[in-house]
Write a structure and sequence with these properties.
The protein is of the alpha/beta class and about 450 residues long. Helices cover about 30% and strands about 20% of the residues. The chain is built from 14 helices and 17 strands. The chain has helices spanning about 20, 40-55, 75-80, 135-145, 165-175, 215-230, 230-235, 250-260, 305-315, 330-340, 365-375, 385-395, 410-415, 420-430, and strands spanning about 30, 55-60, 90, 95-100, 105-110, 125-130, 155-160, 180-185, 190-195, 200-205, 270-275, 285-290, 290-300, 320-325, 345-350, 395-400, 405. α9 packs across α10. The longest helix has 15 residues, at about 40-55. The N and C termini lie far apart (about 70 Å).
Length: about 450
């Protein structure tokens, strides 16, 4: 058909993709998560709809692409067929083109490109990088400055492979705000995903439980994986990096279990507070009751007086709650503020102070990490992506005296892209007595210095 008339087509959009379809336009879009989340189909449908609605040039990239068969070409053609748009598009050796408006989908591998050779793609409106976890830092540094049309954007879809994936490091640099949980309910079922954004970027973390169109055949495969191999399940279906290094303190399996566990909130109420020291850092509050975390909050760019007022409100002005504050540096001012306000159970804790067992740990923060590692099998945690990452990615080593020594915060921040504010506040909640009056959990018969779960 030489001049087909456009027909109305209804595209079913998965809720997490609203950020792409309806939100304010951004330079970078990061969609990551596990199998069955619908990332690739969602991206393909969005780009094809743009091609049907007006002229757009789309560059579809992977790090390595020896032939067009290794690209998203087949997926795009399948979605064209699904929507009944076959008569509008030509499939050529060079790519896919719209017969009427000239929209084009181009396909390329990145590994063999140089800054000069990739200039041929300068007139591109959208660059879609599928399996973006495999894209090298070198390729990103060559590609991103090349795509510079007014309003041009990058769309990354990926399942994280390693913690050091360059694309996820780029996302962390572009977006420093924490994620928020979004939910969508339809026909009695609730779908949820995590989303964070900045002026120029949005990042969506989505899995099978965010996809209303998740097929039953995949559900059976997912449930089988869950029973047979927890580590594989976390990577394949929950979008976690493939493997932790041997020097990580806490396993992802244990953190995942703690985020899924329900325990009774019985016992003393304790609040842990990590106070921001620098511009990008955050002040974080956690409150637990017994072994259950019942509440948390995050604040940025607040002075001590304002932060103190927020903490009082967080505690609902209960003066009997035990409060532990990292009072090294500016935190000391908050400790003084709370004591002056009548919160007599306020304790100032220095992470670098002497631990209970100086023969085993170099300082208090190292002992606090292994204390929490020993009890995490009995703890209920809120499912916060930043907390998951901070708990599972903190490393340790041994000093000259063969004592456990936690990775310095500055090294973690350089590696991950932010300070471990959530983890620090949580550890203060669950720390063992270190020179202060602190609940010892003796009724739980737990060995706090046990390296594994009891």
């Amino acid at each position: 058909m030489s001049n087909p008339e456009k027909r109305e087509t209804v595209i079913r959009v998965s809720p997490p993709f609203r950020a792409l379809w309806a939100g304010p336009k951004k330079r970078f879009y990061f969609f990551h998560g596990g199998r069955g989340s619908g990332k690739s189909i969602g991206a393909a449908d969005y780009l094809l709809n743009r091609a049907m609605s007006g002229t757009v040039r789309v560059l579809c990239c992977r790090e390595v692409q020896k032939s067009i068969k290794e690209s998203v070409h087949e997926l795009l053609m399948d979605r064209i067929e699904t929507h009944g748009w076959g008569e509008y598009f030509d499939d050529t050796r060079e790519g896919i083109t719209h017969k009427i408006n000239g929209s084009a989908f181009l396909f390329s591998g990145l590994r063999d490109h140089t800054s000069d050779s990739i200039k041929s793609y300068h007139n591109v409106d959208v660059c879609w990088l599928e399996e973006a976890h495999a894209v090298s830092d070198k390729s990103l540094k060559i590609l991103i400055p090349t795509i510079r049309n007014d309003g041009s954007s990058f769309l990354f879809t990926y399942n994280r492979f390693l913690e050091s994936d360059p694309v996820h490091a780029l996302a962390r640099r572009e977006i420093k705000t924490p994620s928020e949980t979004f939910q969508f309910t339809n026909k009695g079922k609730t779908y949820s995903w995590e989303q964070s954004e900045s002026a120029d970027a949005v990042m969506v973390y989505m899995n099978f439980d965010a996809n209303p169109f998740f097929p039953e055949v995949l559900r059976k495969e997912m449930e089988k994986e869950f029973k047979e191999d927890q580590n594989a399940f976390l990577h394949i279906w929950k979008g976690m990096p493939l493997a932790q290094t041997a020097d990580s303190v806490i396993s992802r399996t244990d953190v995942d279990a703690a985020c899924s566990r329900t325990v009774k909130g019985e016992g003393e109420e304790v609040c842990g507070v990590d106070v921001a020291r620098f511009g990008d850092d955050a002040s974080v509050f956690f409150k637990r009751k017994g072994m259950k975390v019942v509440k948390y909050a995050r604040h940025v760019k607040l002075g001590i007086q304002d932060l103190g007022a927020k903490l009082e409100d967080f505690l609902e002005y209960k003066k009997d709650v035990t409060i532990r504050i990292d009072d090294s540096g500016v935190g000391g001012g908050l400790t003084d503020y709370m004591i002056a306000k009548g919160y007599r159970n306020t304790q100032g804790i220095a992470f670098n102070q002497t631990p209970n067992d100086p023969d085993k740990y170099d300082m208090a923060i190292s002992e606090m990490w292994f204390t929490f590692k020993g009890i995490i099998g009995d703890v209920e945690l809120p499912d916060i992506p930043e907390l998951r990452e901070e708990l599972t990615e903190r490393k340790y080593t041994f000093d000259k005296r063969q004592r456990r020594s936690i990775e310095p915060k500055r090294d973690f921040k350089k590696r991950i892209g932010r300070s471990p504010d959530y983890a620090d506040a949580l550890l203060l909640c669950f720390m063992k007595n270190i020179g202060v009056i602190v609940e010892d959990f003796s009724s739980s018969n737990l060995d706090y210095l046990n390296e594994g779960r009891r």
